[in-house]
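User: Predict the structure for this protein chain, please.
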Amino acid sequence: MGPESKPNRLAAETSPYLLQHAHNPVDWYPWSEEAFARARAENRPILLSVGYSACHWCHVMERESFEDENTARLMNELFVNVKVDREERPDVDDVYMKAVQMLTGRGGWPMTVFLTPDGKPFYGGTYFPPVDRHGLPGFPRLLEAVARAYRDRPDEVARSVDRILSALEGAEQPRPSDEAPDPSLVRRAAEGLLGAVDRHRGGLGGAPKFPHPAVFQLFLRQRRAAPRSDLLDAVLLTCRRMAQGGLYDQIGGGFHRYSVDADWLVPHFEKMLYDNAQLPRLYLEAFQVTGEPWLRRIAEETLDYLLRDMRDPEGGFYSATDADSEGEEGRYFVWTTAEVARVVEPGDVDLVCRYWDITAEGNFEGRNIPHVTASIETVAKMFGRTPEAAEAAVTRARAGMLGARAERVPPLRDEKVLTGWNALAIGTLAEAGRVLRAPRFVDAAIRAADFVWARLRRDGRLLHVWAAGRAKHDAYLDDHAFLAAAFVDLYEASGDSRHLARARELVAALDARFHDDAGGAYFFTAADAERLITRQKSGADGSTPSGNAVAAHVLLRLHHLTAEDHYRMRAEEILRLYRSEAATNPFAYATLLQALELSTEGPAEVVVAGVPGAPDTEALWAAVASVYLPHHVLVSSMPGAAETLPPARGRPQVDGRATAYVCRNFVCSAPVTDPGALRPLLEAAHG
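Assistant: Here is the predicted structure, written as structure tokens:
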């Protein structure tokens, strides 16, 4: 509908996704007691529609159905209509997505669920077309059939509700394992996952192909335990093919959501903050292992993309950009040879088009998704250039094409700031700053963390989302766990103890308001949060890591930093609860397996005693940064400090010089002041 149409209730919301629907002729409600009260008063079923701003098929269903006057009239006559942004209310999304998966055997967005007036689901699905198509009923026909069933067959609806609720409530919660941890479990899990790797193109399985960074990080950690090289080979192949393909934005940096094909060429063009927060960390770790410069370049370009295009002026990070622009999926990102020729130096056009496979025929609907099909060295030889000259030509072309692309109509940017997704970015920026000795990344992490701490708390409580200057919704497990982990990363990158204090405060909030005293681990929602039809608890990863797995990891890090045993006990409780699930389904539990490995192996403890910022202190930290330490505790100890963390006690400077100590499994090295002598100690601790 055009802007002249009367806005509905969603016009008062802050979510960009809800605001996209504010001029639909549908009488939308946000998720609210008002909607449920009306449904009860009029004994009408609720139509719950859930999506998110960067969801392509959500936009399709809006155009086909929610903007259609006749369909909207049916919806308004038969239902109370509720629209939810899944990123703003992941608790609502999670509960009803499980119901849809039980009903249909699959899930996805847009999600369409029909509820009784007290919020209990009785029917649902995902996308429905406007007319019968591909075995799916047309949406108007479905609306009439569901409303008729609710009105005329209440016993059948009640049986459906009972069946779904009993399945949700009876979903088998795991029982804690009493067995001693099996040290070989993580190794066997990694080797099992290796069988799913595409040995020609990288990644797991065929099309569509998602990045799954946690699985490949698990491979990096386990390559030490297995004498075979194929774990590292799988990581490098996947990282290289993702970075060369259309999944990676060759012009502007950053990764799209996933590839619709097995070759990483044609992406689903939306860009999500959580992907671009997680993937640079995989590339950083692979860079530490191999020292290959291209891995560092991809990590830096991706983080620079976040800083350039996805940062709020106050320092937080936006959630996503859309796949569509000018009514076409991917239009913003694709090129013709003529468009390249207009902005690239004439002598470089052929070389650049060959490097990025930009042809007259195109590789995507008559246009081209830039992707790398030949190395710089190969292209240089083809065009009689040195590799350095070819690289310079590509660099010039990238800058020119990025400038020209900025003049196009950009995809919609979802400018809400989510606590958990920001935490993922903060942690990666802190680690990138530490590993690459790049203060701009640490500074950006601190600025974002301070933004979250200032804007996304109320009365000492963490909140979930900030948009249009307003923060709302109590934070969830993931928000607390991810942010606590980010603050530990920030402490290790900066040595500033206030970050550690914030991490401890967040974990205390988890214990006070989220802990399952009966079954162990943490619920997704707080004890005093809005009560939904069931309270969820999980240890499995999704697009983001499992909140319980990240909590276990950060609890173990805090235990080793503070020597406080209650952190270890809580972590081991989580690991015992989900250990059997991780053994049988390692793909879904890759993050938990990393925490389990930390628990059984223990971290390398590194203490540097010295004046912060002094050249000798920085030289020791640079040596630490150059070594891949998958599980570590890094402690900065300032001479004369009133308080020191337990790992730093009794570990002073030697002869007034910055001094490093490396410990593993209660065995410590002699103190060293020479950065060159520190590296072999770190490598020995890593093994």
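The mean pLDDT is 94.
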